[in-house]
Amino acid sequence: MRDLPTWAIERRARKELPLPLANTLAECLFWFQKAKHTIDGEPAFWKTGEDLRDALGIQPRTGNTHLKKLERFGYWKIIRRSRPRYGCPSPVNWLIPTNKALDLLSRALEDMVQAGVSRTIRNQSKQPSKEPGSDA
After folding, report:
1. At residue 59, does pLDDT exceed 70?
2. Residue 62 backbone class (left: φ over 0; alpha: ψ -120 to 50; beta: rest)
3. 111-117 — which CB contacts under 8 Å span 24+ positions?
4. How much is the pTM?
């Protein structure tokens, strides 16, 4: 599966969740697509309240609350462990997406394909620039 943009994941998540939680879920699932770590053989990634503050403009405590609510809704399991390679004693939230989260990613991709968005994005990248002063 190719990486889906955050907006496509969020659009799908808004059908199931209130907007603030949909934003947090979309941001986290976007980064999950790039996950390189595993915990007990399952793909995992970590996020902190500070990461969500920087990405979404919300308070770190609110970000952590969103992560816990999304765990209760069944989108992932949270495990508290230290970050890799940082040797930092303070643990972070490691998120292990469940089938519910993976299904949401699949449905977001289906939505994009149905809307023809992926084809549009591909065609736009091949179009020559039409800006004034360009040679095209």
Report:
1. yes
2. alpha
3. 111/8, 111/11, 111/12, 112/4, 112/8, 117/8
4. 0.78
